[in-house]
Design goal:
This protein is mainly alpha-helical and about 140 residues long. It is built from six helices and two strands. The chain has one domain. The longest helix has 23 residues, at about 70-95. The protein starts with a strand and ends in an 8-residue tail after the last helix.
Amino acid sequence: MKQVDENQTKVDAILVAFVLCGYLYSGYYTMLFLLTYDFFVRLYVSPVLSPFYALSRLCVKVLRLKRKDIEAEAKTFADNLALSLLIFILASEFWREHIISVTLILALVLWKVVEATKSICVGCKLFQLLRRHNIEIVSL
């Protein structure tokens, strides 16, 4: 079973929350495109090409945080869910539905802040709930 470092995912969650808050403050669409690119590349190409993956890995190394392995399958599901939300956010911005995009952004920020501070991954909890009810996720 593949494992990921929980400390790295927490740092990554903080970075994502900061970029989303930066978008809410500035309105620069580049930030949303950067996040979408990051999640897409990390999930479907290679984590090595992901800027946030590299930055969070560097932060963990510089801060000398001890590695804490957790199951990667639930995190992958959560990242797919976050990517889907980002695509909906971009679509709602494209259609000028600002209230919908801000609501989704605030939900994603809250999710990432809770993940970073309380070690509660909303996407992972949803994955576990679906698994408990024998619902198999094939694709998002």
